[in-house]
Each structure stands twice: as structure tokens, then as C-alpha cells.
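Lecture notes, unit on binding sites. The following record was shown on slide 14. It pairs a sequence with dinuclear copper ion.
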Amino acid sequence: MRLKALQSKFLLTAAFIAIGTGNTNAQSINEVQKIANERGLSTADLLAAAKTYTPTGMKDEYVIFSSGGHSGQVFVIGVPSMRILRTIGVFTPESWQGWGYGVGNEILDEGNVSGRENRWGDTHHPALSETNGDYDGEWLFINDKSNARIAVIDLRDFETKQIIKNPLFINDHGGAFVPPNTEYIFETAQYNVPWGADHAPMSDYKDNFRGAVTMWKFDRKKGRIDKAKSFAIELPPYWQDIADAGKLASDGYFFLNSINTELATGGFGVEGEKNPPFEAGVSMNATDYLHIIDWKKAEKVFEAGKYTMIKDFPVISLKDAVSEGLLHLTPEPRSPHGVDVSPKGDFVVVSGKLDPHTTIYSVEKIKKAIANKTFSGQDEYGVPVLDFDSVMEAQVEVGLGPLHTQFGPDGYAYTSLFLDSAVARWTLGGDYGKLNPEPDWTLVQKTPVHYNIGHLGAAEGDTVDPDGKYLVAYNKWSVDRFVQTGPLMPQNFQLLDISEQGTEMPVIYDMPMGIGEPHYAQIIKADKLKSWSVYPEIGWDPTIQAVNPWAPRPKSERIERKGEHEVEIFMTSVRSHFTPEHVTVKQGDKVTWHITNTERAIDATHGFSIPVYNITLSLEAGEYAKFEFVADTPGTFPFYCTEFCSALHLEMMGYLMVEPAE
Ligand code: K7E
Ligand code: CUA
């Protein structure tokens, strides 16, 4: 019955497609119908295909920058095709792009933790740089939850330029988030520890464990975090969770929620320990605290020198944060997770995992309550608590397990429902109320997704100017959606069409994400990215984004012996040879190897690898790179180009000869 109905619809769709291509040939209509029938595709499927299929040469309209979870990387994906465009090696070495195998090691080393090499990360929240609250396509920042680090990625070449370790705490979650003009990158602690993760007994939790938010100053000109102009604000040892920077109406504020206001310390499974497990212990209170931080005020307090150096880092004490009036709390419903600021900056949307509502706070009311000191009391650390009823604007019942919220251009908000496995579309009130036909603060519809959605992302959906159109559900579980790949399954990114008001939000594409477990991702209009296609000049050093005076040039290739145990090699690569092709050093030599890819053609990348010495590079057109090693193993080592760059690519090789010491 159902199949018949669908089949008759195929004719229509097929005709539509055929006309769309200017081809009214009945045979092609029949062909489409035949294939659709054979594959069991519905009209909705054909429409979804038409909305997402991207023929060769056609480019995507949007680009997703996705966190990679504990793969430690960032993934770049086109929308609506949902094709992976590339990965960006960040905290984890990545051999294909030559990240961490001879090149990038200094940057990865900046992220060493307590003097130890740490070669993975747990990336959660990418933040595109913003100008006036809108993505500007220049920089990308991302946090590593596992070791409290922030990375800076330059979107001219999509490469990681800096990794910075937080000196105060050992994991983070409320980062990376940026204010509307990217003056700072915010990073907040999650599982609290004593300063610097020093040792202290759990019985010290209340007195010695501390939360904090670090404001990393971003120097846009240098493209680096300026540690000397960065500082932190001490917070109570609640588990600070996700955050969002204010904008427009809330510019200058930073919102941050928290769990574990119970100050639970767990201990489940330990003999003689009577505490409930963390999962129960941190969920006992009916409300936790939204932290409201006036970061512009904090900046002034820091500039006035009102801070203490802790672990060699300036920290505004909790006491001063309170007395200077830069920190306030207000209750938020049980087990809050996402906090998201509306496009005009006038509302703050909080979702509690154990409460089926989203709670919306009015920024105007928050400001008024702060000014009038409308407090319901203070927490046990003396932080004033704004009266909930005087700052809450509305609550919308959206469904079970609400996590994160994004926004459209038409007054809609979209909230992910982890337990319901659905995306809820609901309406904002206030100024947004006129933008759609539905009543304010009302659930409009829900679309099932597969399964257990975490974050969601709408096109430019956290900027002052959201685009709508597409929304991606970043689902945690894929279960039965794909061919079985062993017990470890991909995550499932599902693309939803949200372009129409008042209709459903159909799922139009499933993308298996089998290379990491992403959390948040941001979606930027593709034409805002101004990526280079080749490096600007021959000899370009991506670590300084300038020509390096040491870069070898054609005719300057050479091998220089410096003193008894030091050799410097100046090499060029061009289709299809390296110059020089023979490199001879002595066992024990310290080798410094400079290499320039002198190509100017787009996509003329050469790889360069040396066995045994664990070297592999990716040299893009114009790129200069330098790597060093001690030639402690004697032998005969063919080096070769790993990128199939030309018909004579196999011939693009040479020999490193390490002569044994006497
Ligand atoms: Cu919800 Cu780390 Cu943003 Cu995962 S977090 S989903
Ligand atoms: Cu160069 Cu292969």
C-alpha cells in the first residue's frame, strides 16, 4: 500500500528532476523511477538527495569546524554535502599532514604537561574568531578538556600555531569561547583540583580545591595568545561547565554554568566510604549556579594590579571578584549543561539535563538585579546569588535531556534533547516574537535524530546574525544506521533542513563520523574563509607566516659540516626530485635539515620521509620546513616523497647514509 503511494510520487519527483536539468526525456524519468524503486527510496529521500547531492566541481555553501573529541583533532566538513574536506592536526600528531613527526614538535611541546610529552587531546569546543559578534573566518581556537590546554589555528593555512597549557587547573570544559571581538579566549576549569593540580587529600575539597576562569589575551596581529596579558579569576570549586560570551545587549558578560554545587567528592567503591557515587552526589540539589561574570570589569581589576601570582600566573581572588562586583550567581535547574546567548544578546538559554525545560534568563533583568542588589542570599563562599524569579524570563518545556541550544534568523531556537534523541524547535519571545507565526516561548515541533544527540549546530547559529537553513545534529550513538564496523561504531552527524517555517525539519543526510567523537562544531559561510591555495612566497615558514631567511632556494642547496658533530642540510623539492639526492653524515652527528618545496602550482604538495628516524613531513607549495635529529643509528636509509605528486613520483627519492662511527 505504502510502496504504491510512494511509487506514484516518484513520477512527480522524477519529472521534477528531469525538468530541472532541462531534460524532459521520458527515458530518464523512467530511469530515476526505476532506481528509486530498486533502492526503496521515497520521494522524501529523492528530495533530500536533491538538496545535498553536490556534483563534481560544485562547492559547499557552508563549512563545519568540528571538534574531534579524544582524537585530539579538528575536522573540516562541507555543508550540505557533508563531505570531509580535511582534518587539522592539533593535540595529536597526524602523519599525513606531517604534524608531529619532525615538524610541529615545538608547538606540541608547548603543550607538554608537567614536563611530560602529552600527545593527544580531548577537543570539545571550537571557537571561530569573531568581529562584531560575527565569524570573520580568520582564526579558530579549541580546548583540550583532558589537560586544560587551548590551541590556536590559523585559517589561512588551517594549521595549528600555538598550544598553551593552563598553569592553574588540569582539565577544562568552558572553553574555547570568545567575546564578540575576540579580545580574549575564555577557558574554565571543570573537575577541580588544588592550584596547579598539586596534591591534597579529598577532605580538603571545600577549602583547597578551586575553580577558575582564565582569560587568555589574544594578540590578533601576532596570531598568538599573549600569556603576559592573560589572567584568571578564582571561582568556587563547583564543576564549572559550558560557557558563552555575551554579545550586543550582554556584551562584556561571560555566562558559565556549573554542576556539583553540592561539593560532592565521590568515593563510591572504596571500602569504608559512605559517600554516594558522583553521579548521585552531584545531582542532589534542585538547582545549581549560573555564573555571571563581568569580564570587562575583571580586565580593569587586573590592569589595576589587583591580583595575586599563583603558579606564576595572575589570579583575581574570589574575595576581590565579589567585592569588585564582577561575579554573581543565580540558580539554574538541575544538572545544567548548555548555556547559550541569543543573537541579540538579550537572553541566556540554559538547559538542565534532568529538567525537561529550557530556562531563559533576561539580560536586562540580570543587569537590573545586579544594580539593585536583588539577592536571594549568597553561596557558602560569599558570592551573591541573584534572585531567580527576578532574572528568569521564561521556561519552555522541550523534552527529555535538553543540552545545547542554537538559533535561527527567524526567532526560532533549537535545542538538542539527548534522552529523547530529538531536536526541538521553539520560539523566542521579546523582539524575536514577530519573526514567525507561532506564539512566543512555545515548543513548535520535534524531529527525531539517531541517536542521543549531544551538541547541535545551525549555520552561523551562535552569532549575532544566524543564517538558519541548515542544522547539524551531532549524535553520540549511531547504533543501527551503518554497516557494522566492529563494536566501535562511528558517531552520526545528521543534516536537517530547517529552511521552512511551520513545517517539519527533515533529516536530509547521515554522515558517519568514524574518526573521532566530536562535541561542539561551528558552521561558517564558506565565502568568509580566505584560505591560501599556495603559500604566498617560496620559502614560506608557516610557523612565522613569513619567508624564512634560512629557507633553501634553487642553486643554494648544500650540505654544510659545522664542527665535528654537526651537519646542516639545505634541500629543495620540486617535481620530481630532491636536491641533493645523496646525504651522508656520520653516526652521532646532530643533523639540522632545511627543506623548501619550490613549487608554485596549486596542490603540488611533496611529502618527505626518512625511515628509522620517525620523520614524515607534508610540504605544501612554497613551504619551508626544518627538522632536527641525532643520527645515532648507522645505516642506509632511502628517503622519499610520500605524496603521489607526478608520473615520476616513485623516482622522487634519495639516500641518507649514516656512516658508522669508528
Ligand atoms: Cu555537551 Cu563537552 Cu559541549 Cu559534549 S559537551 S555534548
Ligand atoms: Cu613529490 Cu611525490
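Take-home: The first strand starts at residue 62 and ends at 67.
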